[in-house]
Amino acid sequence: MWFQDLFPPNTCPINAKTNTFYGIMFDAGSTGTRIHIYTFVQKSPEILPELEGEIFESVKPGLSAYADEPEKGAESVKRLLDMAIDAVPPHLWKKTPVVLKATAGLRLLSEEKAQALLSEVKEVFEASPFLVPEDSVSIMDGSYEGILAWITVNFLTGQLSGQNQHTVGTLDLGGASTQITFLPRFEETLKESPRDFLTSFEMFNSTYQLYTHSYLGFGLKAARLATLGALNMEAADGQMFRSSCLPKQLEAEWHFGGVKYRYGGNKKDVPLWLIPSVFVLAGETGFKPCYLEVLKVVKGKLHQPDEIRGSSFYAFSYYYDRAADTNLIDYEQGGVLEVRDFERKAKEVCDNMERFSSASPFLCMDLTYITALLKEGFGFRDNTLLKLTKKVNNIETSWTLGATFHLLQSLGITY
Ligand SMILES: Nc1nc2c(ncn2[C@@H]2O[C@H](COP(=O)(O)OP(=O)(O)O)[C@@H](O)[C@H]2O)c(=O)[nH]1
Ligand SMILES: [Ca+2]
Predict the structure, then answer these.
(1) Is the pTM of this model over 0.90?
(2) ipTM for the predicted complex
């Protein structure tokens, strides 16, 4: 506006009562890249800034799909960044930090390919009018992914302010990795957990000692490959991977992380050695044989803290998507489920694959994996409650908000 050039931002009439500022956080996930543009309002210097709103947009595929053409990957980031040019008022561009953090997709690429992608993105940031902090483009450590998602959910549900803090644990199921995070209440948990599963984190003038772990290769899409016996096969082209979790007659192709995979159902005339599990017979499909196949991916591979068996958790990303796809929850509202609801739905889908064939051919495998991950992986009880949420107060439940708070704090923009 005309008068903005006449006044410094803080004394500008439009900002006379409050101080508005922005933060731009990119989530470079394994299945897509997303921009979150947050608006904060600082009403007075003594109190914490309030989150006023979020602009969110996403593109597919994720950066890791551009492993061999990093400039194209950076272009997808640039298109999203152009949205921020429109969203943030020009006089605040220079004060608005922009950061990208990549998760499991880039963790699984070679160091060289991942670095090429990151440096192309850095160039896009440096050519923009925004504040580019040091280390603005990086691969995030898995434990931060869990901590920051926990901060987001507990901030949005009001558990990080005031005296009576009843924090909730969080479960995130991505394409390539999965995270579990909670604040232990019992001494036993602290004693029995591997040291690198426990971490101290400071936020909003409090220190939280959290249990968190990120399991690389245990995201929903990586688990599909593991079930098919195709994980970490760089040259999978040509080979056919079969599973009793897929419709019997299916034969198709799938691209993930820049590799092409051929996969199909467990047909009767398939040679025995092509079937992934010794417990599964040729021609067999359905929940029982599928569960056996999936079980070998998770059983004995995850730490099971006793404390979580009876507590309830917030769950999002693919937990949410698959529950919504099968009408276990409302797509917009989310809902509360028990672990056994995923098992019931997995049985229904796997034992009637023809009926669900119009949905994704992986629906049976995905629901069975989620069931096995929750029960045999983390050791949850059948009646453990899961609160499935996509948004709280219209803000995405993503680690990106926690990361933005952390960023603003480290830049001294908030404290
Ligand atoms: N509600 C919501 N879901 C998200 C957001 N970002 C990613 N997801 C979900 O995350 C899942 C994909 O995981 P992704 O981040 O690509 O893989 P990762 O790198 O293994 O974490 C899908 O279920 C997405 O719907 C977000 O900001 N909001
Ligand atoms: Ca993710």
Answers:
(1) yes
(2) 0.97
